[in-house]
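It is time I had a proper look at our fold encoding. Can you supply me with one protein entry, sequence and fold together? It will help me judge whether the discrete encoding reads sensibly. Leave the record below and I will have a look:
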Amino acid sequence: PPSAAVNLRPGAEQKVVFITARVHPGETPSSFVCQGIIDFLVSQHPIAKVLRDHLVFKIAPMLNPDGVYLGNYRCSLMGFDLNRHWANPSPWAHPTLHGVKQLIIEMYNNPKINLEFYIDIHAHSTMMNGFMYGNIFEDEERFQRQAVFPKLLCQNAEDFSYSSTSFNRDAVKAGTGRRFLGGLLNDTSYCYTLEVSFYSYVLGGPNSAVPYTEEAYMKLGRNVARTFLDYYRLNSLVERPLAPTPKTR
């Protein structure tokens, strides 16, 4: 039908945003941020409709379910920090990573699919606000393009800090999703770790720390989703509601 989503038309190239969360079981805020993204994307919000029409979102909300079930802080059932095993995940010892990585490689090898974003959501125990880690590239233009999404997010989310956002290639982080996929995917893909504080964000002066709530984490997730509208310049396609829309939980 003519009303079919742009990205579902036969032969259409699919732009994919891949989001993963909770690879470290103790980082519970990452689940609330991810929940905010999911709730927003499946909602009837006019922005969500436009995003669904133009982008494909693949979301793995919990990469470490056994660790979460056991109440571990960082490891899986078998004692692995999964976020150090992306380079060569074992289907037996790291099944969730293995599955996600296979899916990402399949999409990467499919000429009809453009895997444009990979975002892995974490929580940070010592820093405030939301912020991102990105990769370092020799190519200056690619490096600058990578800064666009966090800068746009900063405009949408008052609790997101661009000044805390950093780009690195620390050897300790080599086995992380962001670093590994940043090296695997081509230069039109952007890989980030999205971090959010366990406890507070700062508005205004240094003494005005606001404690995070579940709702505030979910709001950050909604704002992450909305930022794709700005990034892909889809704003003109959003139907303007006639009356203020009630805030949905």
